[in-house]
Amino acid sequence: MKIVQINKENWTDGLKKLSEIYRLFGPVKEDDFHNFLELEQGQLPDLNCLNTRLSPKSIIYPQSEVMFEYTLDENQKDHHILKEVKKDYSPQAVIGIRPCDARAFALVRLNFDTPEHQDPYWLKAYEATTLVGLACESPCSSCFCTTAGCGPYHEEELDLLLIDSGDQYWAKIITDKGKAFLKAAGWTQTVDEKTALKEIKAKKQAAEDKICSTVNTDKLREIETNELYNAPFWEEVSFSCINCGTCTYVCPTCWCFDIQDENLGSSGCRMRNWDSCMYPLFTAHGSGHNPRDTKLHRVRQRFMHKLKYYVDKYDTGIQCVGCGRCVRLCPVNIDIRRVCELMNSHAAAKD
Amino acid sequence: MLSYIDKIKEISIRLLKECRVEMVIGFRKGTVPMMNEPHFAKSPEDVENFVWDSNCGINLCNYLTNRGEKIGILAKGCDSRNIVTHIIENKIKRDQLVIIGVPCKGMIDKRKISAMFEGEIGEVIENENNITVKGDGFEKTLNKKDVLQQNCAICIHRNPVIHDELVGDLVEEQIDVDRYEDVREIEALAPQEKATHFEKLLEPCIRCYACRNACPLCYCPTCFTDESRPQWVGKGQDPTDVSTFHFLRAYHCAGRCTDCGACERSCPVGINMRVFTKKLEKDCLELFEWEAGLDPDVRPPLDTYRPGDPDEFIK
Amino acid sequence: MGIEPDRLQFSWVSSAEATKFVQVVTEVTRAIKDLGPNKNLVKTMPKVA
C-alpha cells in the first residue's frame, strides 16, 4: 500500500481522531494572511491557502525557546542549579505543509544534526513531528522551487504527501510515520495505484509547468570565493537594504540563534532566540569591534552564505528552497533571484 | 504622477552631468507587483532604470543619514519633511543636497489591494487615476483614491515643503481631512481596554525591526533594543518586551514623525504601529501647534522650552 | 499604553519646598494605593516553548 484515498467527507472525522493522539498544526487565516498555528479542537486547517506568511520552521524551532531555568529560592528543590526545562515532545503533526517548507528541514538539519554536535531541542521536536505535505497546485509567481532543488510535489522530509483530487485527497505514504498517521485517522481506503500514480504524474507535471520563475546556480560552486566576495555589484545590491530581519525570519532555512539569560526576581532562565545576520549586533564583539560593520558586509554575508559558502561546504545545492517569502516580503524588494543571477553570471563572466 | 518620470530622468541626468551631485537617489522597478526598490544612479546611464509610480512609498530620506557626498534625492511631501528633520538634527547638510521635489497624490496600499482578492495578484497596471489588478481568473479596475495607504489618504502635505527642482506642477492639498479619527477611538478606551487593544495589535510582531529600520528617524548608532549594558528590553517574544519596543520607539519619534507610513508599509505581518506615532503627532499638534519637518529654521518642541508650555506643573 | 493616568504624575518641587514635597509624595502614594498593583507591562517568566 503506497497510496490511500481520503474522501473529503471523512476528513473532519479523521482529524478528530488524530487530535486525540497528535497536537495538530495547520494553516489558519488570521486577518489578511495565513500562518501555521496549533489547531484547536474541531478547527480545520485551511488547505486553500497559497502558502503561509511565515514559514512553519517555528513549530520545530520556536523563535524564542527556553532551555534552562534556575531558582535562588532555598525552599525549592535544586535551588541554585541551572536545570534543563522539561518540554512537551509528544507527537505532533503539521498538516498542509508545502513541499518547499518540508525540504527546508533537510537543509536546517545539516546545522542541527552533525556528527560532532546534535541539537537536542531541534532533534527531539523534529522526531516528534509528522509532516503531512500538501502538493502545490498553484505555485505563486515568485516561487522558484524547481530550480532550488525542490518542486511542488517534492517528497523529501515529508511523511505523507496529500494530493487534492476533487472530492478526495490521495495520500502518498513516504515513511512509517506517515503510515501510522493514516492509521490513527482511520483512513485506509486503498486505490488502484496505477491509475492514481498516472494522474499524480500528470498533475505534478502541470504544477511544475506553472512555475514561471527560476534561478541559475550552476556556476556558483566553481567560482573563486574571493571573486564573488569582491564583486562590484554588492554596493548596488545592498544599497536599498534597511537591515531588518524580515528575510531571515520568514526564511524556512535560516537557523541562526542567540542565547540570552533572563532574570526575574529570584529565578530566571536561559533561552535562545532567532537571530539575524542582518543585524549589526549579530557580529558585534565585546571589545566594540564589529567585523561586519556596514550593511554591505551584512547583505553580502547573507547571500554569500546561502549561495556560496553553503554550496561549497555541503555540496547539496543552495541554502534556499525557493519558497519566495523573502522576495514577497522584503520591505524594499531585494530579490534573491536577482542576486543569485548576478552571482552566477559573475562566475560565468570570469570563464 | 506617471508623467513625472521624463522630468525625473532629465533632472537627474543634468545634475550628474554637471557634477552638481555624485549620486541621485530614486526608485527602480520592482520584481513583484506593487513594489519598487530604492536605487541610486551615479552616472547618467544609471538613470535609465529610474521609475515613478504609486509604488514609491519607501521614505528615501532614510538613505541620507550620515552620508558625506553630494546627493540628488527625489522627495515626496513626506520625504521632504523628513529631510528637513534630518537637517535640523544634523544628519545631513542642506548644501549637500539637491532636492528634487515630487508632488504626490498618494501611494497605493499593497496589503489592502492583496486582501481584496482571493488568488495571487499577477500584474497591476496603473494609469493616472486608476489601477487595474490582474490575476488568475480575475481582473478589476480600482480607483486609486480608494486604495491609498491610510497615511496618504489623510495626508495634508503632499507637495514637498523644501525643494531645488520640481518634477511637475504642485498638486492640490487635501483640506478638511480628519487625520485622527482612529487615534480618538483609542483615546476613548479605558486604560485596561487600551492595554488589551495594544496587546492584540502587537501579537503578530516577529521583532524583525523593519518598522524601525525603514524609519528615517531611527538612526541611533545603537538602538536601545540592541543595548546589552544595560539591557533595557528582553530579546524574546514576551509581550511586555514587544510592547516596550514599540512604545519606546514611538516616543523617540515624538515631534519628529511625519506619518510617512514607511513603518507600517514595511511590516511583514501587517501591524499598524502608526497608531502610536500618530497619537504623539496629534499631541504635538494640539499642545504645541507643531507639525514636524515644515521649516528647517524652527526648533522642535521637544528641544525647546517656552513659557507658554501647556503643562501646569512645570510653570 | 494602558497605564492609568493617576499612576504617572509630574510635579515641580524646589529643594526648598519640603512641605510641598511631603504633600506630593503623600498624594501620589495614596493615589497609587487606590489603584492597586500595576498589571500591564509587567513581565512574567517566559513560557517554555
Describe the structure.
The complex is a heterotrimer of chains A (351), B (315) and C (49). Chain A contains twelve helices and eleven strands. Chain A has helices spanning 11-18, 57-60, 99-112, 120-127, 176-185, 193-210, 225-229, 234-239, 246-250, 295-314, 325-329, 336-349, and strands at 3-7, 23-30, 33-38, 64-71, 83-84, 92-97, 129-134, 160-165, 168-173, 257-264, 267-274. The longest helix of chain A is centred in the C-terminal third of the chain and has 20 residues, at 295-314. Chain A is globular. Chain B is an alpha/beta fold and 315 residues long. Chain B folds into two domains: 1-107 and 156-176, no CATH class; 178-309, no CATH class. Chain B has helices at 4-17, 77-88, 110-115, 150-153, 181-187, 191-202, 210-214, 239-252, 262-266, 274-288; strands at residues 23-29, 36-41, 71-75, 97-101, 121-126, 130-135, 138-143, 165-166. Chain B has a five-stranded mixed beta sheet. Helix content of chain C is 37%, strand content 0%. Chain C has one helix at 18-35. The longest helix of chain C is centred in the middle third of the chain and has 18 residues, at 18-35. The A-B interface holds A 30-33, 50, 53-54, 63-64, 138, 140-142, 236, 239-240, 242-246, 249-250, 258, 260, 262, 271, 273, 276, 279-281, 327-329, 331-335, 337-338 and B 30-32, 35-40, 58, 62-63, 111, 114-115, 119-120, 122, 136, 204, 206-210, 212-214, 222, 226, 234-238, 265-270.
Placed side by side, the strands forming the largest sheet of chain B appear as: 2-1-3-4-8
Looking at how many chains there are and whether they match, the oligomeric state comes to heterotrimer
Largest sheet of chain B: 5 strands, mixed
Strand order of the largest sheet of chain A: 1-9-8-7-6-2-3
Overall pLDDT level of chain B: 95
Low-confidence stretches of chain A: none
Helix/strand-derived category of chain B reads alpha/beta
Tell me the distance between the termini of chain A.
51 Å
Strand/helix succession of chain B? HEEEHEHEEEHEHHHHHH
DSSP strand count of chain A: 11
Number of domains of chain A: 2
Rg calc of chain A: 22 Å
Strand pairing plus helix content of chain A: what structural class? alpha/beta
